[in-house]
Amino acid sequence: MNDKYFFEKGYSISTDKSLIDFDAVYNYLENESYWAKGVTAERLRKAIDNSMCFGIHKDGKQAGFARVVTDKATFAYLCDVFVLDAYRGIGLSKWLMQTIMEHPELKGLRRWSLATSDAHGLYQQFGFVPLSKPDNWMEIYTPYTQTQGDGK
Fold first, then answer.
1. Which residues does UniProt assign to the signal peptide (predicted)?
2. Is residue 94 part of a domain?
3. Per the domain annotation, does 148 fall within a domain?
4. What is the CATH number of the domain that holds 112?
5. At residue 4, does pLDDT exceed 90?
6. Which of 31, 73, 101, 139 minimizes the number of CB atoms within 10 Å of its CB?
7. 114 in a domain, yes or no?
8. Are strands 75-83 and 61-70 parallel, antiparallel or unpaired?
9. Is residue 134 in a domain?
10. d(Cα 143, Cα 134) in Å, to the nearest integer?
11. DSSP 63-110
């Protein structure tokens, strides 16, 4: 997919956070995603503030979204990637990934990571593979809960 095709169809991708429809992103992550259920609005706002964000827009409406947590020098963690149902099936997820991977501030990173339960095929097209040394990786995983909140 190329930029010209999508621009002609009225789509754009931007890293301008002022264009993000926070309510649309929050609604998707809280109610439709399998990975962010229980996230509070306050926590998501903080995550967006501290991440590099990519929004897909059509006619001023949010069509998709992705966050990259990065130092812009050595490492990036790709997360919260989605295209809303009404905009699926035309290649927007591939275009979004292409745009992220070709972004000048993210070129030449030593390591990218992500976690997915259902989109391996998409990410493999961009060079993602299972961890080469999974025994070297460790984690602390604390799922969101309704009582966890944000310190309230």
1. none
2. yes
3. no
4. 3.40.630.30
5. no
6. 139
7. yes
8. antiparallel
9. no
10. 21
11. EEEEEEEE-SSSEEEEEEEEE-GGGTTSSHHHHHHHHHHT-GGGTT-S
Identify which of 13, 15, 14, 43 has the alpha carbon closest to the alpha carbon of residue 30. Answer: 43
Residue range(s) defining the domain that contains residue 109: 3-125
Task: Find the mean pLDDT for residues 38-45.
Answer: 96
Report pLDDT digits (tens) over 11-33.
999 999 999 999 999 999 999 99
Rounded CA gap, 138 and 117, in Å?
A: 18
Residue-wise pLDDT for 58-95, tens only, equals 999 999 999 999 999 999 999 999 999 999 999 999 99
Question: How far is 29 from 92, CA to CA, in rounded Å?
Answer: 18
**Measured at the alpha carbon of residue 93, what is the angle toward residues 87 and 96, in degrees to the nearest 5?**
115
pLDDT for 145: 73
Residues comprising the chain, all counted:
152
Do the beta carbons of residue 120 and residue 105 sit within 8 Å?
no
Tell me the CA distances in angstroms from 15 to 48, 55, 77, 135, one per residue in order: 11, 6, 16, 35
Domain count for the chain? 1
Q: Which secondary structure element, helix H or strand E, spans residue 96, and what is its range?
A: helix 92-101
